[in-house]
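User: I'm designing a mutation panel for Lipopolysaccharide export system ATP-binding protein LptB and want to avoid disrupting the core. Could you give me a predicted structure to guide residue selection? Please restate the sequence first so the numbering is unambiguous.

Assistant: Good idea. Sequence first, for numbering, then the predicted structure tokens:
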Amino acid sequence: MSNTDFALAVEDLTVSFDGFKAIDSLTLYIDRNELRVIIGPNGAGKTTLLDLICGKTRATGGSIKFKNQELSKMPEHQRVRLGIGRKFQTPSIYENLSVFQNLEVSYPTGRSVWGALAFKCSDEVKARVQVVAEDIGLGDKLEMEAGLLSHGQKQWLEIGMLLMQEPELLMLDEPIAGMSARERELTAELLQRICKNRAVIVIEHDMEFVKRIAHKVTVMHQGKILAEGPMDKVQSNPKVIDVYLGH
Ligand code: ADP
Ligand code: MG
């Protein structure tokens, strides 16, 4: 397989903070339509890796290729336009706006200079909002003020806001933290649905949840990859049990 067949190719990626390598010569490939879960102890560098891919943090060395374009020197907004969506741990929705309005404002105004100038057809936006709202299980809550949603529903709304941009790579950092058992189940189904059209990277600690959703699991430790593969293989790896699962 050549590098162009991957949704994302991270090669020899390094970032150091005052000499401390939070990511240390890391190489990782994600397939199109793959749902990859990244696990590992606190401080392993999981969040930092997502920061590097979305452009919040600049790499010290190495390469990040997405759709065969080099990202590592590209500003964050340009990466968003290329199709990278990132959800942070705390949801950033507009609490005073309705679910509909939250989704509406997330509709991209255009990915090119001409697109930005083009007339935004309101029927097209409405149709897209409807599709995304159904996808995230909020189809019957469009008029509700976002602040009144449950914690889980707020998380889904934020995922929906990212889906409005139709990202080709979606990254989620601990999306089920604080969710009820039922909300976790629904989130697993949601993630399985949305990875049909895109690559998805999820950082998660809940092993039952990881088992349900992961196509492949990457285990990080001290800025490096400790193990990678299907969940059952990774789970029985003595090194993984030693640094992470055994605790
Ligand atoms: P994880 O998400 O796996 O728990 P992080 O990526 O948050 O780990 O952190 C990895 C390591 O990098 C930690 O030791 C953290 O303190 C350090 N780190 C992360 N961001 C910065 C930064 N901006 N400046 C200095 N150190 C950082
Ligand atoms: Mg983290």
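For picking mutation sites, this is relevant: The mean pLDDT is 91. The first strand starts at residue 6 and ends at 17.
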